[in-house]
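Pipeline run #58 for the internal structure catalog. This entry was flagged by the ingest filter as a single-chain record with no existing model, so it goes straight to prediction. Upstream metadata was stripped on purpose; only the residue string is passed forward. Reviewer on rotation: M.T. Logging verbosity set to normal.
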Amino acid sequence: MKHALFITSLALLLSHLTACDNMHGETKRTLSHAAQAVVEQVKQEVVSEVENALSDALGNQEDFSKEGNPASPKASEQQKGNTRKAEMPGKMRGVPERIIEHTGYTLSFNREHNNPNWVAWELTAEEAEGTLPRAEEFLPDPDVPAPHRVTTADYRGSGYDRGHMAPAADMKWSQRAMNECFYMSNMCPQNGSLNSGPWSTLEKACRRWAKNEGAVYIVCGPVYKTTKPKTIGRDLRISIPDGFFKVVLSLQKGKEKAIGFYYGNHDGKQPMHETATTVDAIEELTGIDFFVNIPDRLEQRIEAECALKKWQ
């Protein structure tokens, strides 16, 4: 309703501008174009909200809820109190997203790319010391609506790895967390050399940092540099990212810090000191607002810094 009233008001403004004879022509055109741009933006947001509502409705009809699934101790603790978890990004605008919570991580699923927009999790020092063996079975995510539920068949013969966003080695503290991190909603088409090389090196560094800092908050996901990326897939079309981002936050008292990384989705060496950047730069690259649930002044300060030496 609020969008409809807003569009109606802008339409009236446009009609007045058109009828106004004593306004300078260039000024009139500038104002008219600006108003039309706002109308288009609101229209896109309305379409996105309607699509999300339909997707949610389908999810409910097909029993994608977690009813009957006992929540993990970690999830239960978060649901009892304030759910403003430090790792959670802000709501995305103009981008399809379905928020899905699993035992060890939360993700924002994008039905247009059939990939996550982002995956976020907290990794504590204790969790980083987990000893459970790695799971091996990649499974469709039961919390993703059926028309967008990726399977391993969609990757077969593609030449790309099923690249974990939240890595299995971060989930060795819980069998359920381990099993759920093999859901296909936690995967993106990833270059094999990147997956086993530079990306793996960064994942190991995050576990080391979790032990040193007591806990770290991590968000990562795909980056697309074109509106129509190449795709893979048998039953679904899965977008191939141009690269991947990762942002890491430590809230160790008196030593709060954050850092960002960007890796191209290709072969070749990508040393950490060359991929490191500010969280602000990753926000500009992705359009995602990170770490919105920490105090604003702290967020502004640490997101503008890139000091890899502070993490080593």
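catalog note: The chain has two domains: 2-60, 69-310.
catalog note: The radius of gyration is 22 Å.
status: ready for reviewer M.T.
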